[in-house]
Amino acid sequence: MAMVCLSDFEAYAKKYLPKIAWDYFAAGADDCTTRDENILAYKRIRFWPRMLRDVSVMDIRTKILGSEISFPVGIAPTGFHQLAWPDGEKSTARAARAMNTCYIASTYSTCTLEEISTAAPGGLRWFQLYIHCNRAASQQLVQRAEALGFQGLVLTVDLPYTGKRRDDIRNGFCLPPHMKVKNLEGAFEVCKMSPLDPSVTWNDVYWLRSLTHLPIIIKGILTREDAELAVRHGVQGIIVSNHGGRQLDEGPATIDALVEVVEAVQGRVEVYVDGGIRKGSDVLKALALGAKCVFIGRPALWGLAYKGEEGLQDVLRILQDEFRLSMALAGCASVSEIGKHLVQFSKL
Amino acid sequence: MAMVCLSDFEAYAKKYLPKIAWDYFAAGADDCTTRDENILAYKRIRFWPRMLRDVSVMDIRTKILGSEISFPVGIAPTGFHQLAWPDGEKSTARAARAMNTCYIASTYSTCTLEEISTAAPGGLRWFQLYIHCNRAASQQLVQRAEALGFQGLVLTVDLPYTGKRRDDIRNGFCLPPHMKVKNLEGAFEVCKMSPLDPSVTWNDVYWLRSLTHLPIIIKGILTREDAELAVRHGVQGIIVSNHGGRQLDEGPATIDALVEVVEAVQGRVEVYVDGGIRKGSDVLKALALGAKCVFIGRPALWGLAYKGEEGLQDVLRILQDEFRLSMALAGCASVSEIGKHLVQFSKL
Amino acid sequence: MAMVCLSDFEAYAKKYLPKIAWDYFAAGADDCTTRDENILAYKRIRFWPRMLRDVSVMDIRTKILGSEISFPVGIAPTGFHQLAWPDGEKSTARAARAMNTCYIASTYSTCTLEEISTAAPGGLRWFQLYIHCNRAASQQLVQRAEALGFQGLVLTVDLPYTGKRRDDIRNGFCLPPHMKVKNLEGAFEVCKMSPLDPSVTWNDVYWLRSLTHLPIIIKGILTREDAELAVRHGVQGIIVSNHGGRQLDEGPATIDALVEVVEAVQGRVEVYVDGGIRKGSDVLKALALGAKCVFIGRPALWGLAYKGEEGLQDVLRILQDEFRLSMALAGCASVSEIGKHLVQFSKL
Amino acid sequence: MAMVCLSDFEAYAKKYLPKIAWDYFAAGADDCTTRDENILAYKRIRFWPRMLRDVSVMDIRTKILGSEISFPVGIAPTGFHQLAWPDGEKSTARAARAMNTCYIASTYSTCTLEEISTAAPGGLRWFQLYIHCNRAASQQLVQRAEALGFQGLVLTVDLPYTGKRRDDIRNGFCLPPHMKVKNLEGAFEVCKMSPLDPSVTWNDVYWLRSLTHLPIIIKGILTREDAELAVRHGVQGIIVSNHGGRQLDEGPATIDALVEVVEAVQGRVEVYVDGGIRKGSDVLKALALGAKCVFIGRPALWGLAYKGEEGLQDVLRILQDEFRLSMALAGCASVSEIGKHLVQFSKL
């Protein structure tokens, strides 16, 4: 079977992963409306491409928080990579480094931050954080990440409680005994749902600020009001995200929310988006609407499920080629030429 | 089979109820467009959730006409509960009381008001009334209900004649011989359709007012004009309802009509809504659009069909958990924080 | 099989008619988009019903061009009724008279005007006319109809050439040898397509006017401009029609065009509509939008196919019952209470 | 099997062509959204036809760049006609001449320009050009075409790189060994993708202008901005095209883009459109929206696949008959009567 586009990897993963793992990765909250909307919303955006521009030399690099990446696609934080591939997050880290892009390692990794660092020294990595009831545990994680050279801290704010994912309930989802949420070992027992602190508020961003010199990126913002608050609380970046449709169902597609957030932020901080990216042209759309970079979640897992580090590189390379081609066909030779004029929301 | 969400109960009921009973409960008028629209209209409403609010302590209680209920979901009046479960409305009354919510008992109950009262003393109950040609019969029902401690009178106004439900006609629907519309025994013969009085007008609300000290809630209003009339005729509450899509087909979905009614009423009386509630987040949407409480019809019957009182409690508990979770994920810690800002009608 | 609604008759006809006859009746032009739109457009209209009106005495009668009919549904002109039932148009005439409504007999009848008249003396009938190249033949038809007591002349204007109906071409559609277009016998040979005159213009309305004292109703108008021209040329009525979607495909649904025409006409002449009526509530919608009466085409043929005169009466009676019920449920006790306030075009 | 409409030819071609050839002709870029949108967009346009116009004498001829054609449908440039029929472009040229219309021969023909010319002397033909890295090769092609009597030069501008067509990648699409891109023989090796020059800009239109006296038509324009640039750079015509949806996926349907381009051009040059034409009424829509003529791509190939020259004539004749009929049914007797008033974009 030729792996031509990302849905080929999806089909592979669905076929070869254990059902409980596939279901966990695929899960959306409730009716999965938002999970699916993330994808459908991209299809409602039309390009209005320009012709006869010199696109013989294409430059698809960009910078996020000052670091150059080979193209504006990073790896979103997702949990439990060993469910997809035995080497887990170590493979993810290696693939991201090989493709010269950014990998956001999840708190819920099945490898430790130290293992991830050692697996791919020098790679650009951010660390994703939940604030736990046990604040000392969170503080320790932040300081470990900073010490290990992670270059950004991604605070997830849309999970005061875990969303209701029906298939996980039916399956009684739980990590197999030989896998562990290693970063948290000792601190808590993960299969007991959500040891996270639901009392967290904007003030805790100041607390987090006091713990680290790393830039703080806030993940899970969907409204202009919260975007404004994020800027006012001094974060360096915002990831527009609905947690892949796994938290509150029937919220907006992230690409729709991006428009609101970009308008509110007015360039004061960098804005990124995740959710629903399935083709290079989706990346182009997100950038045209103001995202500095996008992050992929499930497609990265499908790549891992296919062939570990190599499979994830395949996924990234396909996205890279498709992005470059769609840029050229839209008449843009470099990322700086991408703008709002390229796209229009279809009313249908 | 795990009962995870309300559609699990629907599937169970469809599988295990006699076809004639399932068809009767499921029936909509004509093409069932409005029945289905009630559900689809909820799916067109998008949440715009807020983050980083303290949702560690959740308060989902509310009050209807001064009585506290554990969460804003009551049991709508539906007929013939013995078709779903041998104990019929007695089980319904017990489940509602156990969950500390309101049960609107139907005129077309298969248990008497007295049996219902005795089954669950102290429960919060309203009585649903049609005005019959035989006014004395209606008067007697009102006075029995008041005497038995029912705390509200729900006048259904959308059934001057019974809607055309094709499957009931094909099935020749009729109660089995061992069931009776006990409240009306002697007074009329129910399988002869509609002994209801189609000449009823707004003036009859004054007549009803003269019979009882109970608050009057009018059920079946869909337009702003009728909402205004209801307020002017001194009712205490309005249930926006299209009778589950069983009367005039191709009227508005109730959640769409709610917006009109709430705008017309301007807080002068309480407004409730029924029809199409299938998830806790639907309750959140209805409250965001101005409903004080919602009522569930068919899902309560599915609960009964599953395991009687216990099954109905399961249904209510799932809705309660889902409602609480969706509130928290939307950033609301108490019902008073729910507002219009949370939702937007999708144009798609 | 119980015959509960019109689609039951459709299913019956599809099952029992010879394929060539079914296909001919069912045919739409090209992709059948307009044929199907006629029906879908009704589904996009929402009722906003009023409650607590006295609907104990229902009056569903109306008048068209001064003649009272039992309810606002007549029989549209369609050809070749013997394809549906051996007695053909004689059965149609009898059923229409029995139900006290108007039957528009087609030029392409398989019975003569005289046979139709004799079959149901005293029935309210209009005659549908094409203008043929052979004007003498048209003149003779008009005068025969007038002499036989037909009370209106319906000039069809949307068939300068026959639309492209793919199935008829594939089937090589042609009347069976024992059927004849009796009104035209001798005058032309019907299976040779369209002996109609494509040079007809508005001036020919004056010519027609000069031939007869009958009121002239023009059938096939879809735009406000043509409606204005019709009024100016002195017609008495307009039937908004797209020939059941059999002529120009991808024109407007008739219920959508009705709105335009009614607005243009401003009450100066009566406006009717055909196409897509499948339920009593569709009739209510058409009247709410300004039609004085509707005409049914294919459903009448299904009724004939089911049981001839009796089957057509069944169809009409179902429509009558449904119309009365939907009026009552919308809060109207008589046709004069029906108005624009009852309906709204859904944007979905 | 009767060949009644263009989809009959499509079905035939799908059934009888080798899969690799069918897939190549059918291919769209990525998800094929734009390919399919080209067709769907036509279905969203509604006619508002006028009645009682004299349509007894129909004149469907038009002129493009001064040359009369029998009706406003020409043959768009598509490659590799020998994949559809052994005689390839020679058959295409003969069919176009027989039907008295314009054939735009592709650079990627499997016959030489000389063979095409010889096959149908005197036919109206334009030559489609890509600008290659090897400019001398392009210049030579232009001069050969001009010398052979081609009357227009169509510069394709939407293919700086080849779009990603998944099926072609899966199939490893490549011409069979006995077929050659004969016009380019010696100059390049075609299965190595895109020897085209991606550095081409508007200035190269001046270069092209300097090579030839032929009118230049620019193909692949979708925006008003590029239409303005085309006019300013002195072209004689614009073909609104998205390359049959084979280049940038999720761009606009061509009929939607046509509206933009026509508005920008304001009659200064002729505007044509290709993509999605499947019925005569589609041609009428395109003309109503301002196109001077349309071009068909895939349907021409289906005609070839059916019966070579004869099959393509069948396709053209069906389109011609359908176009004439839809014009008449819309109330237009000549192309000059077609206008914007005939159509409206449906909001649904």
From TrEMBL, chains A, B, C, D:
UniProt record, GO biological process: fatty acid alpha-oxidation
Reactions listed under catalytic activity: a (2S)-2-hydroxycarboxylate + O2 = a 2-oxocarboxylate + H2O2; 2-hydroxyoctanoate + O2 = 2-oxooctanoate + H2O2
Superkingdom of origin: Eukaryota
Names of the cofactor(s): FMN
GO MF entry, a single one: (S)-2-hydroxy-acid oxidase activity
Span of domain FMN hydroxy acid dehydrogenase: 1-348
One Pfam short name: FMN_dh
GO CC annotations on file: peroxisomal matrix
Keywords on record: Flavoprotein, FMN, Oxidoreductase
Binding site residues for glyoxylate: 24, 165, 243, 246
Active-site residues, Swiss-Prot/TrEMBL: 243
EC numbers, comma separated: 1.1.3.15
Binding site for FMN: 77-79, 106, 128, 130, 156, 219, 241, 274-278, 297-298
Keyword Transmembrane helix in record: no
CDD domains with a match to the protein in the record: alpha_hydroxyacid_oxid_FMN
Coiled-coil stretches noted in the UniProt entry, renumbered to this chain: none
Family to which this protein belongs: Belongs to the FMN-dependent alpha-hydroxy acid dehydrogenase family.
Protein name per Swiss-Prot or TrEMBL: (S)-2-hydroxy-acid oxidase
Native species: Daphoenositta chrysoptera
GN (gene name): Hao2
